[in-house]
Amino acid sequence: MELTAEVIALLMGVSFVAGVIDALAGGGGLLTIPALMAAGVPPVAAIATNKLQSSFGTASAVYGFARQGRIDFRRFAKPAAGAFLGSMLGAWTLQRVDPGFLRGLVPGLLLLMVVYFLVAPKASEEDRHSRLGPAALVGAIAAIGFYDGFFGPGAGSFMTTVLVAAFGLGLVSATAHTKFLNLSSNLAALLILVIGGHVLWKVGLPMAVASIAGGRLGAHLAVRVGSRVIRPLLVTMSLLLTAKLLSEPGNPLREFFLARF
């Protein structure tokens, strides 16, 4: 499909803002996917094209964090491989199983995550002792990677929460490493979608350029402002994502409450 230069420019602006938000707290797809669909892009192509542009933005954020020495690539190489393989398996499973049940489960998980960040002690800027070992880290990230390939919404937020709550990372460090892990799962899902021929390259590549700039800015801001901005933004994006999922027709949790009230 063909989009006008004006529409592509507008989508690039949305992608830039989404790249900043993604680098800080995740959830940029809340902006880009609806924007693509509003421009007339079919849903599957919108998701695929969003994976393309967000992968570039996430890679940009990874580069920004890495330049500041915030990512331990050696420690997180195996978890990143787990995220990649898990996401590929999730994308493969998606083509064979209806993910509808997750539409009801994910809002509940997101709300639990919000409660954790609201009631837990203020997250430290420094890493703490991990409660679990390296094998558990690989397993947990592989499971979230599977979810990312299978369904996706909130995967970055889940990674950050797990790294803070179970593996002792400070919030800025967890955010930085989440970008590295999320990049791995994004690339795996993107590979499957490219093979399927769903990506709109003429739209996705200009958006990717804007997302790169947004990701770099977001990574810079994350290090500068720390948890005082990341924490509330993470909670806000999770609540917005919960509201979006619950507003979708056919959401099992939404239908459950509508049938009783």
Automatic annotation (TrEMBL):
InterPro entries: TM_pro_TauE-like, TSUP. It holds the Pfam family TauE. The chain crosses the membrane at residues 7-25, 76-94, 100-120, 132-150, 156-175, 187-209. It comes from Luteimonas notoginsengisoli. Its main location: membrane. The keyword Membrane applies. This is Probable membrane transporter protein. The keyword Protein biosynthesis does not apply. It is a multi-pass membrane protein. Keywords: Cell membrane, Membrane, Transmembrane, Transmembrane helix, Transport. It is found in: Cell membrane. Belongs to the 4-toluene sulfonate uptake permease (TSUP) (TC 2.A.102) family.
